[in-house]
Amino acid sequence: MSRQYITTAIDYPNAPPHMGHVMEKVLADTVARWFRLRGDEVRFQVGTDEHGVKIERTAKKEGIDPMALVDRNVPLYQNLYHRLQISFDFFIRTTDEKTHWPTVIALWKKLQEAKALEKRTYTGLYCQGCERFMTARDLVDGKCAIHNAAPEKVSEENWFLLMQREGEWLKKLLTQKKGGYEIVPSERAQETLALIEQGLDDVSFSRPQSSLSWGIPVPDDLGQVMYVWCDALTNYASGVGVLTDRPEAVWWNDEDSEITHVIGKDIARFHALIWPTMLKNAGVRQPNRLLIHGFLTSDGQKMSKTIGNVVEPEEVLKKFGGNPDPLRFYLSHEIPVGNDGDFSWKRIGEVYDSMLRNKLGNLLNRVLVLLKKEGGTLGDCGKDAIGTAWKTYAESMDDFRLTDALAEAMKIVVGANEYIDARKVWALPAAEKAAELSNLAERLRHISLLLLPFIPSTAQEISRQLGVPYAEKMLEKDFVITAKMKEWGGQKDWRKVGEPRILFAPLSAP
RNA sequence: CGCGGGGUGGAGCAGCCCGGUAGCUCGCGAGGCUCAUAACCUCGAGGUCGGCGGUUCAAAUCCGCCCCCCGCAACCA
What we know:
alpha/beta, RNA-binding
């Protein structure tokens, strides 16, 4: 039993949430649920990154206050995550001056004391139309492609975080076997290490208020506002009050607390390079791992408003009558952690029909209906039909190979369907039939537990219909899968099944 | 030579690190069953694993070169 602190990237709420956000939260939630179920003490945090020029600009366009904009949009995220049954314990907002700011400001001061910050003049090409600095890539013939105007050279004072000197140290941190900052899946580590090889540059850590006003002021330097790094990355620490006297800080400070950041591949470099550098210089311990997921395309193409293939999470929920499990199952089943994945309406419909409805739902139903006809009483559950499934499953889950773990659970479903046909269970003499059905019910009890981190409410519903005594407690945060529960026939007080109901209805049904 | 990911039966993917019958879901064809949500089960057709070359008794899997697709390239969150 250990202590697990798990976070997701904080979302930028200048627009409503999209499928990319959902993919990340479902991944993190499945991991968090697994940790709880295996008996760990878990704190799971999500949140929003609410500062920056983009929010400022969007608010201006709408003629409202930045704060009003985020206050309007943030609930969209919270609401969606609740309906997806993301079991977060804490939601952090970077505009929260009580929770977030004290850690940020303390961290800044620590960095300054450690002489990790330096004030310099930054010179770059600034496009008035875009209201931002341009990179070589943005320019066509030296002009801004959007505004067809040459950007002007602008100089401004910035605080910089000194990163150049950290290359060797970072490389060691990211590659050392024990006690390092592990990148999962390991394939993702390569590009980050390659970046270090190319040499690191110092990063801008603040901007003048004239360029960025919507942010946290730099302490003791009026006119400077913190740039995204110190503000946003620090949420992981501020959420538990690192560098303050809040008691939750144990989640971070305790040596035996494991810290996992779940993020997308696009921001891996910041989390792998800038964040540890900040922590090191501030004298705060390092996280344990970075769990990186890929991107979601839609029908094979990048989701984009111009192509018009953007999929709204709300639409997907609506299609399945508000049930988040088809979407949760789809993401976990179809997309190996770390890989890019594709969302298509056709595919999710197929997965729903084939896996959830026909294989899983139908299995539960045929077993329960048969059992009901026999009086619904359970006898001895007979020969173990699970074998090493729990072991394989747990190994996969512990290694964050969620797709493999889910496949292991579905293998039992398919096996049970095959078995029913091979044995012609429905045609057996009464005594034998009863014995076989008890065995099948026991298989389903295990299946329900195996599915619990992935599709929690469906898993609970399966156990309810089976009449398993612990069914009502399964969604509580302190519910733990005990050794007894994993044992074949381990649930001695379970003698009677409940009423069969359709688990997943056909989509075409009214 | 900027960095990284990918190219596997009609579609979408796994396998590749640790070489040795090419696996899964869907689709297609035939059959079985009727307990069940027209669901379930069995069998089958369909792949020169992007191309060329190398290593090896043996390569989708290791090495080299080439072609194609997709992200990122640091102030953009």
